[in-house]
Design a protein that fits this description.
single chain, mainly alpha
């Protein structure tokens, strides 16, 4: 006969921690130590077979005892960085020997690892700078379109501006660009006395918020719609605003 207390204890037994997570001891044993051995191997290989060309920046001290601590440390750090940033160790429990081999190679070729890490960092910085410049250009375009719509006061121009700003906002992944697009569409709609322009603005605000997964974008769009509702002079426009707000609140 089954013991009910035993079943209860099993039902409420705490879950075991993930077996795929690497502990500190395992990190030292399977990654750092092999990396240090790789760094040591590099010195031995250079002593056995010196490089044919003279290094551009030779070390101040080139003796074995001088290079040993530095190579051990650099090999260890290279293995840790390379293993966690340049490879997949999620299945560590199933591939310990692969991780050890990888750490040895990363420690042996630590100059290349650090050079690659530096290159990746520089590329990321360049991408960030290019993205920032692109966003600044989009912001300038939105501001120019807003000025054009307010200065022109022509219905056709205002509708085209709202359309262009909505496209810029939808095509950008930057939160500030989307928020700026919402604010600009709201400003153009407030300046216009034409109901069809306001209706297009409402639809554009709804589209901007719907196409974004960011809650802040939806919040700003709802706020802009509520502001347009206050100044609405048409029952049709008020109903459209209410419908858009209800859609965005779902």
């Amino acid at each position: 006969m089954n013991n009910p207390q035993s079943n209860i204890s099993k039902a409420y037994e705490p879950e075991a921690t993930s077996s795929e997570e690497m502990t500190i001891n395992e990190l030292v044993t399977y990654v750092a130590a092999p990396g240090a051995i790789g760094g040591l191997t590099k010195i031995v290989l250079e002593i056995v077979q010196p490089p044919s060309s003279i290094p551009v920046n030779p070390p101040a001290c080139s003796s074995f005892l001088c290079l040993l601590p530095a190579n051990l440390f650099l090999g260890m750090i290279s293995a840790v960085i390379g293993t966690f940033l340049l490879s997949d160790v999620l299945v560590f429990r199933k591939s310990k020997f692969k991780v050890i081999g990888l750490a040895l190679m990363l420690g042996l070729f630590f100059p290349s690892v650090f050079s690659t890490a530096s290159t990746i960092t520089n590329l990321n910085l360049e991408v960030q700078e290019a993205t920032q410049q692109k966003n600044q250009a989009i912001q300038a375009t939105i501001a120019a379109n807003q000025k054009l719509a307010i200065t022109s006061k022509e219905t056709k121009v205002q509708k085209e501006v709202i359309k262009d700003i909505k496209t810029l906002g939808n095509n950008s992944a930057d939160l500030q660009v989307k928020k700026n697009a919402i604010q600009t569409i709201e400003a153009v709609a407030k300046e216009s006395k034409d109901t069809t322009v306001k209706q297009q603005a409402v639809k554009s605000l709804e589209d901007l918020a719907t196409n974004s997964q960011n809650k802040l974008v939806r919040k700003d769009a709802i706020s802009a719609l509520q502001n347009l509702k206050i100044n609405a002079n048409s029952k049709t426009l008020i109903n459209q605003v209410n419908q858009s707000i209800n859609i965005l609140k779902k």
